[in-house]
Amino acid sequence: MAKILLYVGLAALLVFVINREFFTPETWEPFVQACLKGPQASQARCECLADFVHDQLNTREIKAVMEGRDGGQSFQERVGEVIRQGSLRCQ
């Protein structure tokens, strides 16, 4: 039984890594390009921030932010906190 759980865990990890490395969301590159227009932006910092944001928000949420759609105050606060945390992490 322990071996089965180990194999399932390894398979899940493999799927995660493959998705992360080879299947970037359609919003990743536009996010990086928009970030590069900001003050003190660098390619490395914007890619780090894009990775962080895409880890914290799903594609639908990121599209809503990029399109300027209002998701309500709690959504705006959540997005703001994600951006703040990502900015601190990606200095």
Q: For the terminal residues, how far apart are their CA atoms? A: 45 Å
Q: In which range does the helix fraction lie?
A: over 70%
The DSSP helix count reads 5
- What does the overall shape look like? globular
Largest sheet, strands/sense/barrel? none
Order of helices and strands: HHHHH
Query: Radius of gyration, rounded?
Result: 16 Å
Give the overall pLDDT as a whole number: 83
**Strand segment tally:** 0
The low-confidence runs, each spanning 5 or more residues with pLDDT under 50, are: none
Content-based structural category: mainly alpha
Total of domains: 1
Strand content: under 5%
Provide a concise account of the structure shown:
With 91 residues, the protein is mostly helical. The chain is built from five helices and no strands.
Give a structural overview.
The protein is mainly alpha-helical and 91 residues long. It has one domain. Helices cover 76% and strands 0% of the residues. It is built from five helices and no strands. Helix 2 crosses helix 3 and helix 3 crosses helix 5. The longest helix is centred in the first third of the chain and has 21 residues, at 2-22. The radius of gyration is 16 Å and the shape is globular.
SSE topology sketch:
Blueprint: H1 2-22, H2 28-36, H3 43-56, H4 59-66, H5 73-89
Helix pairs in contact: 2-3, 3-5
Give structural attributes.
single chain, 91 residues, mainly alpha, 5 helices
